[in-house]
Design a protein that fits this description.
- With 471 residues, this protein is α+β, with helices and mostly antiparallel strands.
- The protein has 2 domains: 99 residues, Immunoglobulin-like (Sandwich), CATH 2.60.40.1120; 333 residues, von Willebrand factor, type A domain (Rossmann fold, 3-Layer(aba) Sandwich), CATH 3.40.50.
- Helices cover 19% and strands 32% of the residues.
- The protein is built from 8 helices and 23 strands.
- Strands 8, 9, 10, 13, 14, 15, 16, 17, 18, 19, 20 and 21 form a 12-stranded mixed sheet that branches. Strands 3-2-5-6 form a 4-stranded antiparallel sheet, with no helix packed on it. Strands 11, 12, 22 and 23 form a 4-stranded antiparallel sheet that branches.
- Strand 9 and strand 10 form a beta hairpin.
- Helix 3 packs parallel to helix 8 and helix 5 packs parallel to helix 6.
Length: 471
Amino acid sequence: MNPKKRCPAAGAGRSVPAPGQGGSAWWAAAAMGLLLSACGGGGGGANSAAPAALGLVKVTVSDLYGTKVAGATVQGPQGQVTTDALGVALVPMDSPDGTAGVTISHTTFVDKVVSATSTVGQVAELNVTLARATTAAGGSLTSRSGSLPSVDAIGQQMSFEIELVVVDGDANPITHLSAADFALQACTPNPATAQVDCVRGSGADVDVAYAPAAAMPEALTAVAGRAARPFAAALLLDQSGSIQQSDPTGARLFSSKAFLNGLGADDQALLTAFADGPDALLPTRPLTLYAPFRARADVGSYFATLDALTPLVGGNTPLYASIDALRQHLVSDAPAGLAKAMVIFTDGADTDCDGPEACRANRAQTILRANQDQVQLITIGLSGGVDIAALGELANQTGGALLFADTVQQLLPLYGSVGRLLSQSLPTYRLRWTVQAGAAGVFRPGHALLGKVQVSAGGRSFDVPFIVGIP
């Protein structure tokens, strides 16, 4: 053997535990195996030409809160490696000793290029922190001007106001927009689905197409944030089975940490999660409480609990029963003197109702009780499967807001804006439109208009859904 070639001794790295049974020993064995392979594997005969030995780097990838990132691609000089469940990838280098660039990427994180230095016969360690990819996002709430929707004599034309929240990727309010940056979209019902798209009736659905008189709002008012008020908020996280498809990287859990970190000095927060049915994995069903309420200085103790929720996904979505149960705890356990609120994250509708009419009745009761107990509901929906009418009514009829993320990249800025929403210090835009329905009698008391506003902000365009009830 070439004396300049520093290969490990043959026979090293045997009898090691499997992953999860002594992680460092397993990685040492894996590294030794690769090094032996690079050195000719200890066999091949005296005349075999042994390849040059490679250095190895153990790359551990985490997010900004220290949670390990599985499924990240690590591009080294010898090809790609994917991080495992522990966020680790063993990367071969292209020379025995030296430094090379390594690129770490993941669909919901910002790519990062780092320098990795290797030494043959050793496993260098490199810890990499990735930042979540974010984009501008928005939400809607009922106009706080006191202006109610107005309808013409035949119920075919309607004028209304709404307020919109618009934040950039860092959750800062975007305050320089003009009327030209907002466009109300015409609405046509989709006959392929049973979901209400445009107008929801008080009894049978009367979904009818409508179009705005003009896409640009007739009036725009920039509404300044009010003086901040302290609040007690309960986070209610959907842990039903469908979350595995809509949020496979746990963006809601990471974003919850950002919300908790952004609490004011006098604010309090309680972490809860919900799911039900035989496939639910939460310890208490339908609602699991991680009490007690915690102040800003103590909310970091919730981070490990949020990480532990990652595998506890399964079961149905008992939305209204969970809200009702949590409301009772909120009223009895929230610190006195603080405004009470719930921040509800879900990717779909309540699956425990016995049909649409039963769901609407349950929702009406949930709203009634929340108002009686002065509990404001902030709803955050993820993906196209969200029941906008349901989440919008829960939010708007309790003085809250409907925040919608079409992608996980919008979740973090939305969660980051919740604290200012709850404290009433977040600026909004008040907008007014007039719409014309495709038939008379569509706009009448008890019905509701559903719509989407396309917002151009932060270098991109995105939709903000809303619902306006007709009193």
